Amino acid sequence: MREIVFGLEDSFVSTLGAVTGIAAGADSTYIVIMSGLVIVAVEAVSMAAGSYLSNKSATEAEREVLREEGKVAATGAHTHLIRSAAVMGVFYVLGGFVPLAPYFFLPIRNAYAPSIILTAFCLFALGAWSASFSKRSPWRGGAQMAVISLSAAAIGFVIGRLVGAYYGVVPGM
């Protein structure tokens, strides 16, 4: 569950912020889609590798503590590490397509709102779902994740507009 929530949440936020900023600054469907696909692919591999390496370090530290205490560590950790990394990568890819999808079907100016709304909805649902496992309010958990998403989109949009303006890119032309 940790890898599912982390992979989706990070992908929603990172991809939304990036494609919103790229769309605002470049005003090119080609550039948004190409950049979005590159971002999703590279970050999915990075997140999967990070999951594997961080979980491997934690597992090795646990084994060392158990060994020092004279206890035997459970076997099968390697399979668990690979499975966790794969889950992280797959859910990162799936999450990345949520904010990117509208740009495949709509012109840049028409894709902003559906991308942001769809991602905010998915983040709200993910936050509500994950909150239910920790006995927190689903509404509060969902709202927290949605607000993070909108913050990333706003930051990406502002940076994209500033850089686009600096380089003379005129949106909508």
UniProtKB/TrEMBL annotation:
Gene Ontology BP term (one): intracellular manganese ion homeostasis
Transmembrane segments: 30-53, 85-105, 111-133, 145-169
Keyword Zinc: no
GO MF, any single term: manganese ion transmembrane transporter activity
GO CC terms in record: endomembrane system
Main location: membrane
Name under which the protein is recorded: VIT family protein
Organism: Candidatus Uhrbacteria bacterium RIFOXYB2_FULL_57_15
